[in-house]
Amino acid sequence: MGKRGKSVSTIIYAQNYSLMELMAAAIAREFRDQETAFVGVGPPLIAAMVAKLTDAPNLTIAVEGGTIGSSPRRLLTCIADTTICERAYSCGTMWRNFGDQQRGFYDVGVIGGAQIDKYGNVNATALGDYNRPSVRVAGSGGANDIGSSVGRYSVMMRQEKRRFVERVDYLTVPGYLDGGDARIKAGLPGGGPHGVITTMGIFRFDEESGEMYLDKCHPGITPEKVKENVGWDLKMAPSIGTTEPPTQEQVEIMRVLDPYGLYLGSGREGMGDVEKGFDFYMEVLDKSYDAMTELFRQKGL
Q: Which CATH number fits domain 14-298: 3.40.50.2000, 3.40.50.1970, 3.40.640.10, 3.40.1080.10?
């Protein structure tokens, strides 16, 4: 029996879902009950909330802004959104949450990036020469702290050959560094990357070498197609599986949490309209409140 009293045989998979919903469901399955997660706003937070509302009801969620254990009733748009304080166990400070993270209090995290290499090192800083980059990326934010300190973390990013490189142009977030026990020798307290969820599949890491390998392909994607979009000789699991689709319940929850698809769809286009952007933003907040309140009530939160 599952944690909410459902047998495995009663699982109903969604027939219609987007690629981002598939990826968010895969990330949601990375969280375990009774854990404490450190996540950013956007798909990682939505995935964590999906986990908490389904298979990990005792998951404690912390965000960069300083809150722990919140269950907001509106869609969040940034880490400083005051909505995140709703029903939180603690509304503290950013430095306290990051300090607790460095002390090893967080079990799991999720990050993104512009590049990743075979050992899971992530670049979110600059493409090309750091001093004269071809592209200056957003930067670490809390990603380095997550990658250095949490028990394990997952990376969520688009699958492209230019992003999956032999060696990252700049090391923003440490994976397994040069492989083997390099991470341990560097004195990093966290356990390192556990998985990479992309637009094509799911990757894991060899326990001894620290090298990434393909574990599962998304429906309709072949291992050959994935390999074409990796910049090194990618290793494969002995048996390549297929990514489990999202359940109908997971998709329904995602569409309550993100009703306009700001993070899991094309809703951000509406935010870009100079004249209507603010009205659209307020409409998103208004629409999400009642539905999210009812959803959390049904789940006993």
A: 3.40.1080.10
